[in-house]
Amino acid sequence: MGHIDLPGVEALLTAALDEDIGRGDVTTRLTVPEDRRGAAFLLAKEEAVVAGLPLIASVFRLAGGDVDVAYEAQESERVRAERVLCRMRGRARTLLSGERVALNFVQQLSGVATLTRRFVDAVAGTRARIVDTRKTVPGLRVLQKYAIRVGGGGNHRFGLDDGILIKDNHIAAAGGICAAVQSARAGAPHGLKIEVECDTLTQVDQALAAGADIVMLDNMSPELLREAVAKIGGRARVEASGGITLDNVRRVAETGVDLISIGALTHSARAVDISMGWAS
Q1: C-alpha dist (Å) from residue 209 to 196, 200, 234, 235
Q2: Which domains does the chain have, with CATH numbers?
Q3: What band does 156 get if pLDDT is binned at 50, 70 and 90?
Q4: What is the DSSP string of 118-153?
Q5: Does residue 219 contact residue 228 with C-beta atoms inside 8 Å?
Q6: 237: part of which helix (H) or strand (E)?
Q7: Residues designated as active site
Q8: What is the DSSP string of 145-177?
Q9: Is pLDDT above 80 for 175?
Q10: For the residues 59-82, what does the mean pLDDT come to?
Q11: Is the pTM of this model over 0.70?
Q12: pLDDT at position 117, please?
């Protein structure tokens, strides 16, 4: 299994190990002989969509090296409880010192991927695509958005520099939707889409009149969403956001929206229960 080739990941893993190990793993150093070899495995304790597995080998390499990792599950695979994800063999001190950091990443990313897959499955057969937001854990955005893709979802803009999304406070500060869109259009790089957040049908009319490429319908009921989609009539892409849950996402998708953005995919995903067991 290859590594996760994303910017900043190695530095992130290094920082996590530095945070956890600090001046040294005193427990392991005092109890485990330096030349001791060992074998361990990661076990999923519940059903999950696994994400972040390639990080395991990277964590142990950075934690001291001399550990071989054999994967028994694939990235994005839906696994059952009690499934062994991988087996590790090598220097016992490295295995013990890197354990928590490896687990923290795989548990957190698998939680995001698992929750994303549930939403994706819930809207299957509709035109709607599940996407994330910028409501990520600070510093973990690149990996959380990776886990969204592993779970079958899509990524909204990564940061403030790669997309124009005119929200309520921008509208208030700019003096209205028309003024905000006109200013954005005048200065936007070629090809960059302009999206406008709308709370009402009146704002939808204003966004369309201003020439918005994407209209975000914020916190609207399924009935109002359906009316807005009909009003837009294909003149812009339509995104629904706000208050989306597993209980209502299917109804939202059936209104005909193109995208459904859900902050909970990253800010509220529960870590999957995964443990490391000692095999020798």
Answers
A1: 12, 14, 14, 10
A2: 9-115+269-278 (3.90.1170.20), 121-267 (3.20.20.70)
A3: very high
A4: HHHHHTTTSS-EEE--S---TT-HHHHHHHHHHTT-
A5: no
A6: strand 237-241
A7: 100, 135, 167, 197, 218
A8: HHHHHHTT-B---SSTTS-EEE-HHHHHHHTSH
A9: yes
A10: 96
A11: yes
A12: 98
